[in-house]
Amino acid sequence: GAVVSQHPSWVICKSGTSVKIECRSLDFQATTMFWYRQFPKQSLMLMATSNEGSKATYEQGVEKDKFLINHASLTLSTLTVTSAHPEDSSFYICSASSSSRQETQYFGPGTRLLVL
Amino acid sequence: TQLLEQSPQFLSIQEGENLTVYCNSSSVFSSLQWYRQEPGEGPVLLVTVVTGGEVKKLKRLTFQFGDARKDSSLHITAAQPGDTGLYLCAGGGSQGNLIFGKGTKLSVKP
Questions:
Q1: pLDDT tens digits, residue range A4-59?
Q2: Contact B99, B91 (CB under 8 A)
Q3: Rounded to whole angstroms, how far apart are CA atoms B5 and B27?
Q4: Can you tell me the distance from the alpha carbon of B6 to that of B24, in angstroms, rounded to the nearest whole number?
Q5: Contact state of B95 with A57 under an 8 Å Cβ cutoff
Q6: Beta carbons of A109 and A38 less than 8 angstroms apart
Q7: How far is CA B84 from CA A14, A32, A109, B24, B36, in A?
Q8: Long-range contacts of A46-55 (CB under 8 A, 24+ apart)
Q9: Number of neighbours of residue B54 by Cβ within 10 angstroms
Q10: Residue among B31, B97, B103 whose CB faces A34 most closely
């Protein structure tokens, strides 16, 4: 149980385009989903926290207009990187937790984004 | 600000050796988790410790939570090449988020 999927697993796009990444909890209801980015050889950095049906809470330094997060249902959250630039190239990972076990986050397999 | 310091950052050992990875903080955490991450994949949860002084074993891996709940350690006995990966400790933040250490990159050579 507690499986989280991400789609796509990797994406290459041109500078200036927008990219949408989906995060789904497959066998549980995720009241909270988290979005992280990870640069090569570095740890995970939290970008934002989203609760179903409400606006996401962004970490300091993360542009909310650039990284649009939608958590429309208890099993789906999306991250849209708008007007992507090469510096947005990174490994984006989502995680999900349920109301019954908030201290445990289940991670997706990640999405590698390369902006040319 | 809650921070987690992991050490060492890099560790390269021979198969069969033992090793310990440390995760320290000046803050108290309600829980600490250990993850292993392989390149191009998301982190996989190994264990969650919640009680000060708690010790949990997972085959050749032993996890310990400090009495004051400010630090934790991961000990691997007789390491194998399959243990190679990035080991991350993470503590529960005050807002339900996870605060990650910088990770320990372990390489076990056959």
A1: 999 999 999 999 999 999 999 998 888 899 999 998 878 899 999 998 888 899 99
A2: yes
A3: 11
A4: 6
A5: yes
A6: no
A7: 35, 31, 18, 22, 9
A8: A46/B97, A46/B98, A46/B99, A46/B100, A47/A79, A49/B95, A49/B96, A49/B97, A50/A77
A9: 18
A10: B97
